[in-house]
Amino acid sequence: MAEAETTVSMFERIGGAPTIERLVDAFYTRMDTLPEARTIRAMHAPDLEPVREVLRRYLGEWMGGPKLYSAERGHPRLRQRHMGFAIGNEERDAWLLCMRGALDETVSDSAAREEIYGLLARLADWMRNQDGNPHDTGMQRP
What we know:
Family: Belongs to the truncated hemoglobin family. Group II subfamily.
Organism: Candidatus Macondimonas diazotrophica
CATH topology: Globin-like
Strand content: under 5%
Helix content: 55-70%
CATH superfamily: Globins
Number of strands: 0
Number of domains: 1
Pfam families: Bac_globin
Order of helices and strands: HHHHHHHH
Distance between the termini: 43 Å
Shape: globular
Protein name: Globin
InterPro entries: GlbO/GLB3-like (IPR044203), Globin-like_sf (IPR009050), Globin/Proto (IPR012292), Hemoglobin_trunc (IPR001486)
CATH class: Mainly Alpha
CATH architecture: Orthogonal Bundle
C-alpha cells in the first residue's frame, strides 16, 4: 500500500504559531518606528495589541494554520474592512516595507519567505482604494 502524500502548510513550514507571533511583532515594531511608515501608523490606535492579535489570527489561518480568524470574525473581506482608510501607493509601499523587513527577520526558509512576500504584495496592491486604481476601473483583479 502506497503512503499518502502529506502536504505541509506554509504555517507548518515556517514554524507555526511562534513564527507568526514573531512575524507580527516584528511587523508592528517596524510600523511603530520607521519614518516611512508614519502614514500607516497614524491609521491605528495608540495601543497596537488588539490589531496584533487580529493579524496573528489572520496570517496563521491564511498560511494554513488553525481557523482562528474566521471563527471569530467571519470572512476576511479585507478590502471592505479597510475602506474607511485612504490606501494608495504610499500606504501600500509602507505596509510592504514593514512586512518585508519582518519576513526577513523571522522566516528563515528563503523560498517560503519569497512566496509569502509575493502573495502579500498582491494582496497589498489589491487593498488600494484611491481613485484611479486599475482594480476599480473595470480591469481584472491582479
